[in-house]
Each structure stands twice: as C-alpha cells, then as structure tokens.
C-alpha cells in the first residue's frame, strides 16, 4: 500500500447479536484512530447514568425491542456531527432497519460523505446463541435472557439482515467469516479493508 491510502474511514459493522461485532468494532476503531459509535453502548451508558434518555429506553432494551427510529436517529446524527467523527467513524448497531439506512444516508449526504465499507460478520444462529448464553452468565446483561436473545436474533434476521442487500448493491459490503479466534477474525477484517485501500497509517 502507498502513502496515498485512506486516512479516513467511514465504516459500519453489521452482524447478529453475539457475532463479536462490538469487540471487533473496537479493535478496528482503535487501529484507525476513529471513534466507535455503538448505539447499544450509548443507550446502556445513559441507563446506567440515569439520564432522561436512559429512563425513556430502559423498558425497551429490557424487552429486547428496538428504540424508535426518531430517537435513535437523532442520537446518531448528533454523535456524528461531533469533531472527532469528522474524518471517520465505525458504526456498530446503527442502522438496523431500512428506515434507519435512509436516515443515515441523509445524515452523511448532508456532510457530503457516505459509508466506505460495510463489514458483515457472518456467524450462524446456533453459534450466536451459544456465545450469548456465555456472555449472559459472565456479564449478566439484563437483555441476555434466552427469550430476549431469541427475540433480538429474530429482529436481526427480519429487519437488519435485509439492509445488507441495499449496501451490497452499492458494492461496499465485505463479508467476513466470524467463526474463529478473535485475532484471526480481526486479521480477516484488516485484510478486507486493506484490499479496498483502507490501511493503518504509519503515523504515531
Ligand atoms: P445487541 O446487538 O446484542 O442486540 P446492542 O448493544 O447493539 O446489542 O443493542 C442493545 C439494544 O439497544 C437493542 O436491543 C435495542 O433495544 C437498542 N438499540 C441499539 N441500536 C439500536 C438501533 N439502531 N435502533 C433501535 N434500537 C437500538
């Protein structure tokens, strides 16, 4: 790769619950020096801090349902307008349905930008369930009960997986096998990004 390679990267990571997208997303964001914008993390932080937003979404998260598109969209729009997201970001958990894809397109078009790459982490449903059961035992997340896990996977399959078709038509989807060791999967993602000219700069 040459020095003219991307120094900016607008990325989205998509995968079912338990695909490891949070972990991988953080690694990628760190490697490129871009903020990781995780709607789930933002909601959980607000719930923990007892903010007004947190109060509004607690019951929704506990039920495994989606927060309204309006509320989530406003949150993301605000976050992406902050200076640290000017040169790139890694989105995790947004957009999650067709309406949110449309809203994100509008947010980015207003900035004169668009997504560079959508990283699709592929993990079979059975593997996702096994990993989430483990996470539930370890972390005790209130939405990680078996019923809630199944419910969120159903929503993923019905609403989120289809958005990949729209991104696929734009030619920006990189499909990554999400089964394997954590480092192995990180390397797969870096290789796929490098093939598109998105490489870590030598700086720092
Ligand atoms: P998971 O991927 O394991 O469901 P997340 O941390 O991505 O976990 O999201 C947790 C919860 O936060 C979701 O179940 C949903 O209630 C809410 N949430 C996160 N992102 C969105 C979104 N884009 N739209 C609506 N609700 C969202």
UniProtKB/TrEMBL annotation:
Alphabetic keyword roster: ATP-binding, Cytoplasm, Kinase, Nucleotide biosynthesis, Nucleotide-binding, Transferase
Domain of life (superkingdom): Bacteria
Positions of ATP binding = 18-23, 135, 180
Enzyme Commission designation: 2.7.4.3
**Catalytic activity as recorded in UniProt:** AMP + ATP = 2 ADP
Positions with a binding annotation for AMP: 39, 44, 65-67, 93-96, 100, 141, 152
The membrane spanning regions, by residue number, are none
Q: Does the keyword 4Fe-4S apply?
A: no
The primary location reported for this protein is cytoplasm
Record's subunit section? Monomer.
Q: Which family does it belong to?
A: Belongs to the adenylate kinase family.
Q: What is known of its domains?
A: Consists of three domains, a large central CORE domain and two small peripheral domains, NMPbind and LID, which undergo movements during catalysis. The LID domain closes over the site of phosphoryl transfer upon ATP binding. Assembling and dissambling the active center during each catalytic cycle provides an effective means to prevent ATP hydrolysis.
Q: Which HAMAP family match?
A: Adenylate_kinase_Adk
NCBIfam families noted in UniProt? PRK00279.1-3, PRK14527.1, PRK14532.1
Q: What function does this protein fulfil?
A: Catalyzes the reversible transfer of the terminal phosphate group between ATP and AMP. Plays an important role in cellular energy homeostasis and in adenine nucleotide metabolism.
| Name recorded for this polypeptide | Adenylate kinase
The record lists the organism as Microbacterium capsulatum
């Amino acid at each position: 790769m040459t020095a003219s390679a991307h120094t900016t990267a607008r990325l989205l990571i998509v995968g079912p619950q338990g695909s490891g997208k949070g972990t991988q997303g953080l690694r990628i964001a760190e490697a490129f020096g871009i903020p990781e914008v995780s709607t789930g993390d933002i909601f959980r932080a607000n719930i923990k801090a007892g903010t007004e937003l947190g109060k509004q979404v607690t019951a929704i998260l506990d039920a495994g349902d989606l927060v309204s598109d309006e509320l989530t969209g406003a949150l993301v729009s605000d976050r992406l307008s902050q200076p640290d997201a000017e040169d790139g970001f890694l989105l995790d958990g947004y957009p999650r349905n067709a309406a949110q894809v449309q809203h994100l397109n509008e947010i980015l078009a207003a900035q004169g930008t668009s997504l560079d790459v959508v990283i699709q982490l592929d993990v079979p449903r059975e593997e996702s369930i096994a990993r989430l059961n483990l996470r539930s035992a370890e972390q005790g997340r209130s939405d990680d009960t078996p019923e809630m896990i199944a419910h969120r996977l159903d929503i993923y399959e019905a609403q989120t997986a289809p958005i990949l078709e729209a991104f696929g038509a734009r030619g920006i989807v990189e499909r990554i096998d999400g089964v394997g060791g954590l480092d192995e999967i990180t390397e797969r993602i870096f290789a796929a990004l490098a093939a598109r000219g998105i490489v870590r700069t030598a700086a720092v």
